Amino acid sequence: MAVAVRGGYDKSKWGLPRRWSYATITPSTRPATVSVLGREYPTDEMTNVSPTILSKLPLRLHTQPAHPLSTLRALIESHFPSYAHISSLSPLVTPYQNFDLLSFPADHPGRSVTDSYYVNKDLMLRTHTSAHEVDVFEKGESKWLLTADVYRRDEIDGSHYPVFHQTEGARIVSADPNGMKEIEDDSAMLQAHLQRSNIIIEDVPHLSSTNPCQPAHDPKHTELIAKNLKLSLNSLILALFGDHVGATPQNPLRVRWIEATFPWTTPSFEVEVFFRGKWLEILGCGVIYQPTLDNANVRNKLGWAFGLGLERIAMILYSIPDIRLFWSQDARFLTQFKQAEITTFRPYSKYPACFKDVSFWLPENMDIHENDFCDLVRDVTGDIVEDVKMTDSFTHPKTSRKSICYRINYRSMDRSLTNDETNTLHAQVTSGLRDRFGVEIR
Ligand code: DAH
Q1: pTM
Q2: Is ligand 1 within 6 A of the CB of residue 306?
Q3: Does any ligand 1 atom lie closer than 6 A to the CB of residue 225?
Q4: What percent of the chain has pLDDT over 90?
Q5: Has residue 1 got a pLDDT over 50?
Q6: Can you say whether residue 277 is alpha, beta or left, with left for phi > 0 and alpha for psi between -120 and 50 degrees?
Q7: Which fold has domain 1-346?
């Protein structure tokens, strides 16, 4: 199972029972087709893409000149100059590409309609850039980076947004002495560079009983690949963070490797960076599981892959405090940045927060997933809501009916909201709750 990277499957969601989704309870209001990037697709009982989400597809922030996410992509690409750089793939993939080709188990929670966006049962919005791994290998690329927008249903707060960006990277070599020499030479170069820099790395063994070698692999080869993976990423992290955090011998950059589990890599790792007193998880990676390469018709090769979440890194590098800002069309945001330059974001004033509660009784035998509630809020309010918290939930002892209360914080990033405006929005959320889920407002 995949472990969380912002951009990973949230550990807290594991094992949650599947619950009702918007899609499953409103078949009568479902349109026959949905238009995605200019094409019509038939809908079915899995359809749950909303207009708000679909409006993000054409934006492709990672390719917009001067946008922080685009500069970060270019910076990562410049660190791997000999790799193929891919950034134009459509977000529409099949569940087969997104999950099955990567050996996700049939009951993985990431597949459920409460976690992922489906156009219909055969087509979804990719939840990670790994969805393209097999295709890229199949095209014959052996060293490549792929940057793209990815989509996951999520709660609302300052660091979660249902669309974000990832860079996937991978390298494969021949499983023979030539391939191993290529990797060892590269590792020697990287090692020399890292030794001269102000970075402290907490490592874990390349292999262990809990993070084992694959049956198809020679453990010596796996060790060399894992070592090269770690050196390549430590060097990237140093290039991204080293200058910025002003690492010195007294105050070195600290990086920590942790064992992890992903269905398409073994051994697998996560990497955390120490920043402003906290360890931040920034990527997942590992030695590619051989069946993944078999699925791409790649024979007699082995290698590594990683997936990096861009927003979290950009928020650190540019001091951007709220993930919604990446989507801002406000000139006070956009004109602050230049392509290929990392500069500190100058916040314009923070506008007042306005908290409003909504309490309701659920219909009998029904639960509403928090992601369904948050999608409703996003559909009604766009990016005006800063966060949503469940503040109360109880079951009436006599009637067994369940009551829930959410607190919504209405705060625009760009302007002050009037009372009338928040009241109207809140009334729309309330009536949307009634119409979409059949709840009884208290
Ligand atoms: N796709 C993973 C995620 O979104 C990140 C990842 C982990 C990518 C391991 C990889 C990998 O290529 O090998 O959580």
Answers
A1: 0.89
A2: yes
A3: no
A4: 81
A5: no
A6: left
A7: BirA Bifunctional Protein; domain 2 (3.30.930)
